[in-house]
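Posting for a labmate who doesn't have an account.
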Amino acid sequence: MSTRDQFIREFRGEMLGTINSQSSAEEFFQNETLRPILKLQNDLFLDVFRNYIAKSKTDFYHFSVEKKLQFIENSIQRDIKFRNSLKGIVIGLFTIDEYSRYIENSSSLNKRMMSLLVERLKNQVLLFELQV
């Protein structure tokens, strides 16, 4: 294992979630790789989304909670450039082996990655308040 890969694994921390004998390779990847990266990068994702809100020129901070949740989901699903930027934040913390596994099934893993990220941001919607 390269020094970079070893550093990344130690830096990210332990696997999150449970794995059993019926777990798929995608579920294993999600819990071993994606969840720890999303947790580690949480503060960055919050700031990136705050910047997205500012650049979107919407009235996000005056939306109802329900509309804010919808905005979060729509932003990540429909804005391809934004979604690709978020994916890059995650992929940059893959080890070489994880990247090899990722490219074998990137479509499915991208869906999992974005779904987890959408839920993470939605669960923290109250942190997106207008800051004066």
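Reply:
Got it, the structure tokens are right above this. The chain has one domain: 3-127.
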